[in-house]
Design brief:
The chain is an alpha+beta fold. It has two domains: about 40 residues, no CATH class; about 40 residues, no CATH class. Helix content is about 30%, strand content about 15%. The protein is built from three helices and four strands; from the N terminus they run αααββββ. The chain has a two-stranded antiparallel ribbon. Strands 2-3 form a two-stranded antiparallel ribbon. The longest helix has 14 residues. The protein starts with 11 loop residues before the first helix and ends with a strand. This is Transposase. It comes from Clostridium algifaecis.
């Protein structure tokens, strides 16, 4: 996907769609010198060693959410760092 014109995409869904096609049709099916195999074949070699975790466990362990109110100067503070957000969110509580 080198040399991609980002202006060709009007939304993230379009980009994700093209990226998925690229991964499935090209990248994962081309032999890589570091693997001496395709990424797909290398992954399938060790399928029996992969432990799949229930979605609920992933959400409970990795999805940490905090709420922040947007200040009048269009910033929020998270872990002592300030971040700017669009002005339309002034006064709103963001999750």
């Amino acid at each position: 996907m080198n040399g991609i014109d980002w202006n060709d995409y009007s939304c993230l869904d379009e980009l994700n769609h093209d990226f998925t096609i690229y991964l499935n049709e090209k990248y994962n099916n081309i032999k890589h010198s570091s693997l001496n195999s395709t990424p797909r074949n290398r992954y399938l070699q060790d399928m029996d060693k992969i432990k799949f975790v229930p979605t609920e466990d992933l959400e409970n362990n990795f999805l940490h959410r905090v709420s922040r109110k947007v200040n009048n100067d269009v910033t929020i503070q998270l872990n002592t760092k300030q971040f700017e957000v669009p002005a339309k969110y002034i006064g709103q509580l963001l999750l």
